[in-house]
Amino acid sequence: MPPAQREAFLKANSRPDAVPDPGRWSHIWNWFIELSEGRGDGFSGPAPITHEAVLAWRANTGARPRPIEIRLVFATDAAWRAEWHRLQKLKTPKG
Length: 95
Description:
Structural class: mainly alpha
Distance between the termini: 39 Å
Helix content: 55-70%
């Protein structure tokens, strides 16, 4: 993802106080961003990252994440989608 696009993605889809410095786990965040580029739309918002998407990403990039790293990507995705839904509820007028 080009730097400007990545910055726009992060700005639009995360709260600065909710994303800690990933430190030694920064590759997990980077993998999540890469996999999010291919994300489709589901019935009620962004579709989850799938195992099939991870397999294709691995084949295309040569990355060899450990099982715990894949679980962390999926956990990051679940948290991101939950936050996306929360923000959508705040944007929707009540009434």
